[in-house]
Amino acid sequence: MSAITYLAQRLAGDHAVLLAYSGGLDSTVLLHQLVQLRQRCPTLQLRTIHIHHGLSSHADSWVAHCQQQCERWQVPLVVEKVCLDPRDGGIEAAARRARYQMFDRHIQPGEVLLTAQHLDDQCETLLLALKRGSGPAGLAAMPEDHQPGAYRHLRPLLHYSRAQLAQWATQHQLSWVDDESNQDPRYDRNFLRLQVIPLLRQRWPHFSAAAGRSAALCGEQEQLLDELLAESLAALTAADGSLHFTPLLTMSEARRAALLRRWIASQQGSMPSRDALQRLWQEVICSREDAAPRLRLGQAEIRRFRDRLWWLPLMTSLRDQHLPWSAPWQPLTLPDNLGQLVQATLGITLAKPQPGQQVSVRFQAQGRYHIQGRAGSRPLKKIWQELAIPPWQRERTPLIFYDDLLIAAVGVFITREGMPHAAEAGWTICWQKENNRQWGEQ
Length: 442
Known about the structure:
Layout: H1 3-10, E1 16-20, H2 25-40, E2 45-52, H3 59-73, E3 77-81, H4 90-106, E4 112-114, H5 119-132, H6 136-139, E5 145-146, E6 152-154, H7 162-171, H8 188-203, H9 207-236, E7 243-244, H10 253-266, H11 274-285, E8 294-297, E9 300-305, E10 308-313, E11 322-324, E12 332-333, E13 340-350, E14 359-362, E15 368-369, E16 378-379, H12 380-386, H13 391-394, E17 399-402, E18 405-409, E19 413-414, E20 427-432, E21 438-439
Parallel strand pairs: 1-2, 1-4, 2-3, 4-6
Antiparallel strand pairs: 5-6, 7-10, 8-9, 9-10, 11-14, 12-13, 13-20, 14-17, 15-16, 17-18, 18-19, 20-21
Helix pairs in contact: 1-2, 2-7, 5-8, 5-9, 9-10
C-alpha cells in the first residue's frame, strides 16, 4: 500500500487537518504527502502550525523556511512563539508542553491534529519509558490514533523508519531544516538516538520494528483495561470530576492503582509513577480525617476533602491580599482571575457601612462568628466545615470587612453584624466570576 493511500485511509471521513510543522525532515515529508493527498481530494482543508521555541540561534531562519515552503504549496501557516519553563521536568518536557498547549489553542472544531513522529521516535519513547520504570501505559509509548480531548490526534508515520522518510525526501527532492540540538547527547532522547539504538541495530537490525510491536501490544492491553474499568470509574466519578475513593479501600492494589491512573488521565494529567501513586495512597487517601493533604503532580495537585479526591490547578496563595474598596464602590477586580465584586440587584444584601468605616476584601480571617441562620457563634474553621466548603475554596472566597469586622463571605454566609436593619436598605453585592458565573445569592 502506498503512503498516500494509507494516509487517505487514516483520514477517511475527516476533511480538515492541522499539521504540526517544524520544518524538519519528518514533518516536511508528512506535509508533502498531505499536499499530494489534497490533489486527489480537493475538499481536504490543510493548515500548518510552527512553534518557535527560541532555543536556537537559527529559529528565525527556520520560520522563514517554513513560510516559504507553505507559500510554495499554498498551505496556510500559523507561527507561535513560546516561553519555556524548564524547572518542571527539564527543557524537553517544557518544550513538549508548550507545543501541545499551542495545538490545543489553535485546533479548530472538526480538525484533526497530525504530528510526524515515526518508528524510530517510537523506539526511543519505549526505551525512555523503560528507563523511568513505566508500566504498560508508559510502554505503550505513542498511540497512532487517539482522542486527547475535543479533537483527534493522528500520527500516520509511526510505521515508517527515519531511513524510509529520508528516502521519500530524496526521491521527491524535498528540502528541510536540521536542528543542531538533535546532535547533543546530553538530552536523553538524543543519547538513545545517537549512541544506543545504532548499537542495538548492529546486533538486531529490526530492533525498532520489534519495539514498535511491543508498544502496540501494550497499547492494546491498556485499551482493554480502559474498557473493563470504564463502568467502575464512571460510578466513582462525580459530575464535577471528583473521585469517591472510599470503595478503593476494599479493592486489590492493582485494581486500585489502575482506577487512580485512569481518573488522573481523565483529568488530563500526565501518567504518575508508581512512587507517586503510593504517595497518593499513603499521604493523601490514608491520611487522618482532619488533615488537608495534597500531592503535586506536574502543574496540578490532588487534594482530598472528606471522601473525595479533587484534581486542581496550582493556585497562588491569596492569604496576604488586602484590597481596599472605597466609596462609591466601583467594580473591584479580584486577584488571580477570580473576577469582580460589583454592586447589583442580585447577590448578597448587606448592611451599609457606617460613615468612616473602611470597606476591604481579604481572603483569610480568624476568630468566632455568629452567622445568619445559625444559633450562637463558632470558630470560622468550624463554619467552613459545617457548610462543606473545601479548604482551597475557603482560601479563594472574598471576605468583606468593615474596618476589622468580618461582614460576609461572598456566596457563602453573612455574619450577624452584616445583616441589614429592617428600617434601612442595604447594598447588594454580586461576585462576577471570569467564566460569567455569578455568586452571592443566599
